[in-house]
Task: structure prediction
Amino acid sequence: MADETYDVVVLGSGTGGYATALRAAELGKRVAIVEREERLGGTCLLRGCIPSKALLESAAVMDRINRSQEWGINASGQVDWPKVVEAERHIVEKKVSGLTGLIKARKVDVIRGTGKLAAGPAVQVDGRTIRATDVVLATGSYPRMLPGLEVGDRIITSDQALVLDSLPSSVVIIGAGAIGLEFATVFNSLGVKVRVLEALPRIAPLEDEDLSKEAARAFKKKGIDSFAGVQVTEVKDAGDRVEVAYRAEGKEPQTVEADVCLVAVGRGPNSEGIGLENAGVELDRKYVKVDGTLQTTASHVWAVGDVAATPLQLAHSSFLEGMSVAERIAGQEVPEIDYAGIPRVTFSSPEISSVGLTEAQARERGHDVVTTKFNFQVLAKANIVGEGGIVKVVAEKEGPVLGVHMVGPHVTELVAEATLIYNWEAWPPDVARLIHPHPTLSEGIGEAFLSLAGKPLHTM
Ligand code: NAD
Result:
């Protein structure tokens, strides 16, 4: 068949795949994306970041309505769940259509079907062989289930939680990572009774310990029961309810009943059945093994996004990975990614965000560490929006900023400034000289740095 040779073929149209394809096309490459699903966009767009944020927005509206009297407004509201899901779907459709248009505008070909890597490199799609100078694996990930459990009406993952037919009255969530905490927020704000069970000793276990403590306190205040250091021993679909048995260290075993159990214990890579063995691509604990440039063990085969064995599984880290790979394929010199410099965000309420090293990581690496913690309650703007939280800065004594960690209102936006501060290796006194607009939540960062530079303004 004519024209079946490309410069770059990308397997998968999620954030990693489309970022690679768009950048490669921008750099003048002839590019194709192979996608097995009807719609382009992958997990983030179809059943991840975007629909979950749409749900969180509905949840935030409900929160505001429930608290409206704090601002002198008498309002009351009811959740219309089918309409909530419809609003979520509308956003997704709009973004899918935008992405599809952009891919077309950049003249990237979309090849429909399930692709398999072949030697060459090449990709086989339903009997067709598509040759390429470079192939980029961007097949993404799937929600992991607990061993012995299967998805059903009452035992679900985030995939099903986004499109439930009706709103449950109670939910047990297993796992207190980003997905667990975001859905805990959605359900709690929409009036669902929520219990979160986390195996590790604290919720948001990858974050700085002070963030976990602050988040746990805030969730408790909102009526979310979270239990950390818990071993789930059984999850049973009992027909009209689900029963979850668990044991907390040093406590009697417990069984809790709920309408639904949401399993949010991480995501696994889509690395099986994609022909890796045909081309000599090796795995690292089921993820595709890559070097610092994201090249796999096979020449001219690269991997980006959730399927690659890199430290982060985030949509925006895959943007950077995809663009970097496209630029390398085009012959550009691209620095290796410092994953600590990529911001991490959880859109729970309160939000959680961070960049750089936690205090514990900085100490483990032998840094002479100084820290400061600023409480949002000091800020007029935080009082006006009615939210609290903290900004914690970790820095080298007489040296650069090592990490910024936040829990509180809009901190998933505020982390953009922290990302610049960390990646430009700024020193606290330099940042302290940059005045922040008043009254804003961004003053939380400004005040933390004033304090770390030894000249606190609104605190002691
Ligand atoms: P995760 O790895 O972040 O969290 C899973 C949690 O489940 C962990 O805290 C783990 O200790 C716990 N866990 C595992 N087994 C357990 C068990 N048997 N009992 C109780 N707890 C158990 O994974 P996730 O929250 O499912 O998210 C998947 C991926 O998607 C992550 O990489 C995450 O960062 C990413 N994601 C990011 C965002 C965001 O950036 N806002 C949102 C959603 C997901």
